[in-house]
């Protein structure tokens, strides 16, 4: 692992697959319990969790797992069937912030991670 932060991916810095998995596994129960988000998701959350682990792996600079299995992410398009409001984007990011805290991700890394997710979250907003 390269100690120079500028050349090390966020994926590596956060601890790779095991930590990303713990993050996503802490995140979805919060999503399911959230009144704005929970109703949008299927009861069987496992398949969504697995796709999210694959997607965030590549989004944070790791191997291209999502694309290899599911093709081009087209994430905004994939969210079009669901009513994504600004309030829901806020809620999604809050769940991620809480999940990062719950798994004990260092504050500096959690801050970088949240900053990276903010742009896509608001980009997926597709209704008022
Ligand atoms: C802005 C608020 C967001 C809402 C309300 C939302 C909601 C959803 C919903 C309802 C699904 C479909 C679940 C199903 O399979 O039935 C989904 C899938 C997914 N979301 Fe989001 N999402 C949001 C933000 C994000 C962000 C910021 C990312 C990553 C940067 C993301 C990544 C994904 C991925 C990877 C999937 C699986 C796509 C697939 O089916 O292949 N989402 N999301």
List keywords for this structure.
128 residues, mainly alpha, Globin-like, binds protoporphyrin IX containing FE, iron, transport, heme binding, oxygen carrier activity
**Helix content range:** 55-70%
Largest sheet: none
H and E order: HHHHHHH
Percent range for β-strand residues: under 5%
| Distance, first to last CA | 44 Å
State the CATH architecture.
Orthogonal Bundle
Count of discrete domains: 1
Shape: globular
Average the pLDDT over all residues and give the rounded result. Answer: 95
- Return the CATH class: Mainly Alpha
GO molecular function: heme binding; metal ion binding; oxygen binding; oxygen carrier activity
InterPro entries: GlbO/GLB3-like, Globin-like_sf, Globin/Proto, Hemoglobin_trunc
Protein name: Globin
Family: Belongs to the truncated hemoglobin family. Group II subfamily.
In short:
With 128 residues, the chain is mostly helical.
What does this structure look like?
- The protein has 128 residues and is an all-alpha fold.
- The protein has a single domain, classed as Globins (Globin-like, Orthogonal Bundle), CATH 1.10.490.10.
- 64% of the residues lie in helices and 0% in strands.
- It is built from seven helices and no strands.
- The protein has helices spanning 10-14, 16-33, 46-59, 65-70, 75-79, 86-102, 107-123.
- Helix 2 packs across helix 3 (46-59).
- The longest helix has 18 residues, at 16-33.
- The radius of gyration is 14 Å and the shape is globular.
- It starts with 9 loop residues before the first helix and ends in a 5-residue tail after the last helix.
- The mean pLDDT is 95.
- Residues 37, 40-42, 48, 51-52, 55, 59, 70, 75, 78-79, 82, 84, 88-89, 92, 117, 120-121, 124 line the site of protoporphyrin IX containing FE.
- Residues 37, 40-42, 48, 51-52, 55, 59, 70, 75, 78-79, 82, 84, 88-89, 92, 117, 120-121, 124 line the site of protoporphyrin IX containing FE (HEM).
